[in-house]
Design goal:
The chain has about 425 residues and is α+β, with helices and mostly antiparallel strands. It folds into three domains: about 110 residues, no CATH class; about 160 residues, L,D-transpeptidase catalytic domain-like (Beta Barrel), CATH 2.40.440.10; about 120 residues, Nuclear Transport Factor 2, Chain: A, CATH 3.10.450. It is built from eleven helices and 17 strands. The strands form four sheets. Strands 2, 3, 4, 5, 6, 7, 8, 9 and 10 form a nine-stranded mixed β-sheet that branches. The radius of gyration is 26 Å and the shape is elongated.
Length: about 425
């Protein structure tokens, strides 16, 4: 089984029928009675080697294998796999629920996932509903795999400086981890996540929503400094970004983090606004991504596009950026000023207040050509179309220069810069 991509090769028809056929696979066809106890002499006990740490995606892959066996009518094998899974991951609540159903099917029909006997009371109704939704979203991830060779539409151009990238589809409760290779973006793995209690599109502090947009990982917090609640660690992102600030959005402390010891995974909507992964999955991110250069796209729904199409879609903006570079290289402020929005704002300064800094930069350039090294630009579209652009600005003859990030917005048929700043 491919632990990094547990759904590879799964036939959609079988999984599609699973939810409807859960009762048919279990109910009525109760498992055969347990085998008679063996009279063989007990085996000598021996030391058991320590189990290796769980790998990313491993527990989910094993749960999906249980689903496959149920869908194929192999209930006995499903029970054995489920029992082993919950023994090794006793905090995996969805796996415990599936295991409970399989046990119950030995004595009575089981008609739905989490089939609670009548009269059991409503105390567990909410947790049960959350587990059913988690199961539905995990199954949906099986059915709606990204087409081979495609990437999220936001990644128009990614510099080799960004060795990895993350995209999150909140409607599918799924995080996709990419490696940026010389041959293009390669999907390394994808993982179930939970988001804010009130859903997405964060607007104000304390609204219990997860933000939507293009962000960057800003740090990697040492788990020793965190409460157990955050699990294996945390990766903060730069919410609110300049586009959020422009629209008056507030709040802070949005992280990608793990789960507390008592939970393998959290319900689909369970955080105060963060994105939460199972600890083995988060540990993969902690080992892989780089701070400041790893983009994190959080979208209500990802659109998957062929790289060749993205390259064509990127061309008009790339031409505008090349024109901005030529104007900057000229050293003439009057040529450069039309690229900036009238409501430009950076570091609390409006355009008129910021212009002296720009003129100082132009004086340093002195008409030399400006090169844009390690150029990335990512697209974000909601009520407006924006670009998040990152590059090293290096004058000709110089070895290095500041790393800048610009935010552009389409105004009519033109692109305008509404924020520009140096990043660490």
């Amino acid at each position: 089984m491919n632990l990094r991509s547990p759904f590879q090769g799964l036939r959609g028809q079988r999984v599609a029928a699973l939810c409807a056929a859960w009762a048919l696979a279990l109910a009525g066809s109760a498992l055969a009675a347990p085998p008679a106890k063996s009279k063989a002499k007990p085996k000598k006990t021996r030391a058991v080697a320590a189990r290796p740490a769980p790998r990313d995606g491993q527990a989910e892959a094993r749960l999906i294998e249980v689903y496959r066996l149920v869908g194929a009518g192999q209930a006995r094998q499903a029970l054995a796999r489920a029992e082993a899974l919950v023994r090794e991951h006793p905090n995996f609540q969805l796996a415990q629920l599936v295991y409970g159903d399989l046990l119950a099917s030995r004595t009575r029909p089981v008609r739905s996932l989490g089939d609670v006997p009548e009269g059991a009371g409503a105390q567990g109704a909410q947790p049960l509903a959350e587990l059913r939704e988690e199961s539905r979203l995990r199954i949906r991830a099986l059915l709606e795999r990204p087409p081979a060779g495609t990437v999220p539409s936001q990644f128009l151009q990614l510099s080799t400086r960004s060795r990895h990238a993350i995209a999150i589809d909140t409607s599918r409760a799924r995080l996709y981890l990419f490696e940026n290779t010389a041959q293009g973006m390669k999907l390394l793995g994808d993982y179930y996540v939970s988001v804010g209690k009130q859903g997405v599109e964060k607007a104000v502090e304390g609204d219990l929503r997860t933000p939507l947009g293009v962000y960057y990982i800003t740090s990697n917090l040492d788990p020793k400094t965190l409460k157990d609640f955050y699990g294996a660690g945390a990766l903060p992102i730069n919410y609110p970004n300049p586009y959020d600030t422009r629209r008056g959005k507030t709040g802070s402390g949005i992280w990608l983090h793990g789960t507390p010891p008592a939970q393998f995974a959290r319900p689909p909507r369970a955080s105060d606004g963060c994105v939460v992964l199972a600890n083995p999955d988060l540990e993969r991110l902690l080992r892989t991504v780089e701070i400041r250069s790893t983009p994190v796209v959080i979208a209500p729904s990802l659109q998957w596009v062929a790289p060749a199409k993205l390259k064509a879609e990127a061309r008009p903006f790339a031409e505008t950026l090349a024109a901005w570079r030529a104007a900057k290289s000229s050293g003439v402020a009057e040529r450069l000023l039309p690229f900036y929005a009238s409501d430009f704002s950076a570091d609390g300064k409006e355009l008129a207040e910021w212009m002296p800094r720009l003129r100082t930069e132009l004086g340093r350039v002195r008409g030399r050509g400006v090169q844009l090294k390690d150029l990335s630009f990512l697209r974000w579209t909601d009520s407006a179309e924006t670009m998040v652009v990152t590059f090293g600005e290096v004058p000709e003859g110089a070895r290095s220069g500041p790393v800048k990030r610009q935010y552009w917005m389409r105004v009519g048929s033109q692109w305008k810069i509404f924020y520009e700043g140096v990043i660490g």
